[in-house]
Design goal:
Elements lengths: L13 E4 L3 E6 L2 E6 L4 E2 L2 E2 L7 H15 L8 E3 L13 H4 L3 E5 L1 E3 L4 E6 L2 H10 L1 E2 L2 E2 L9 E7 L2 E3 L6 E3 L2 H8 L1 H24 L2 E13 L7 E4 L8 E5 L15 H9 L13 H19 L6
Antiparallel strand pairs: 1-2, 2-3, 3-7, 4-5, 6-7, 8-15, 9-12, 9-15, 10-11, 13-14, 15-16, 15-17
Helix pairs in contact: 1-7, 4-5, 6-7
Length: 301
């Protein structure tokens, strides 16, 4: 199977290409196409992971349905048969890896829920005993479960490369008190529901990132869950059976890619190196394992 590193849907305008998704305008709506690109250390690599975009899209679709009673989302359609006729000639590129969604005015914050100490949260805790300014009990380790899940918003850095954690008070300044409170409530409610489901599937949802917006057609309407939801690209999933605080936990994401890049001593500057076939295959399998564990379904790529 060949990786789709770039989509080419010539019947509608291309708005832009992100690290993973290509974005097209379809009338007043948007078409999101999840490619097989993979990034590490803020660089898109020269090798794609075959089928990754399909796996991510199908995981998001599962969660959009699973969480729909907690918050509406931006999804209009994901089946080619339900797309406008202008998109159907491109079914081979779009099947299984695309979503037609409402155009939304996005909140300029990323809404992060953490139930475990890891990543930038562990780094801040080790230095200050806090995460995003929230004081935590002493004696926690890398990978420790927190007494309760916490909300730790973030903004994009000025160069757009990575996120910067901010205190809740700063989020209030950015989006206003009412929306900030509602975004925090929604984020923690979604995390609690998803973490409970993941645990029943033998996984730990250590942390996750949501993005929200409001429909451009209903600027005063309800807050919508947008972009993706609870994929290995936006969340840390660990194997519950092997979880052991005291160090970094094996995760269901691009860990093999990061490990390989560290092993070869890449300086994390462009151009990014190619990946060996074995690393790409093992990464694909890890994403598939996450999909199958969470959904209980098999996915044919």
């Amino acid at each position: 199977m060949k990786a789709l590193r770039e989509s080419h849907i010539t019947s509608v305008p291309l708005i832009g290409r992100g690290k993973v998704r290509d974005l097209y305008a379809v009338g007043n709506d948007l078409l999101l196409v999840a490619t097989d690109r993979i990034s590490a250390f803020d660089h898109v690599l020269g090798t794609g992971i075959p089928g990754k975009g399909k796996i991510l899209t199908q995981i998001s679709l599962f969660w959009f349905q699973f969480l729909a009673d907690l918050v509406p989302n931006h999804l209009i359609a994901s089946e080619i048969a339900n797309y406008p006729a202008v998109l159907r000639p491109f079914a081979e590129q779009l099947e299984g890896r695309s979503m037609l969604v409402k155009r939304a005015r996005m909140f300029p914050v990323e809404c992060v829920a953490r139930g475990y100490l890891a990543g930038s949260g562990w780094k801040e805790y080790r230095e200050h005993g806090t995460v995003c300014g929230i004081s935590l009990p002493p004696g926690l380790q890398d990978g420790s479960r927190l007494p309760e899940a916490i909300f730790t918003p973030a903004t994009k850095s000025q160069d757009g490369a990575h996120d910067e954690n901010i205190p809740f008070a700063r989020m209030v300044e950015i989006v206003g008190a009412q929306d900030a409170e509602e975004l925090r409530r929604l984020t923690l409610a979604l995390y609690a529901r998803a973490a409970e489901h993941a645990e029943a599937c033998g996984l730990i949802l250590a942390d996750t990132k949501f993005e929200f917006g409001r429909s451009m057609e209903q600027p005063e309407g309800p807050i919508l869950l947008a972009d993706e939801a609870l994929t290995p690209d936006s969340s840390r999933f660990w194997d519950r059976a092997s979880w052991k605080p005291g160090g970094a936990q094996p995760s269901f994401d691009k860990q093999f890619v990061r490990d390989y890049l560290e092993q070869i001593g890449w300086n994390k500057q462009a151009p990014a190196p190619e990946l060996p076939a074995e690393v790409a295959e093992r990464t694909q399998m890890k994403y598939l394992e996450a999909y199958q564990a969470l959904t209980g379904r098999q996915l044919v790529l």
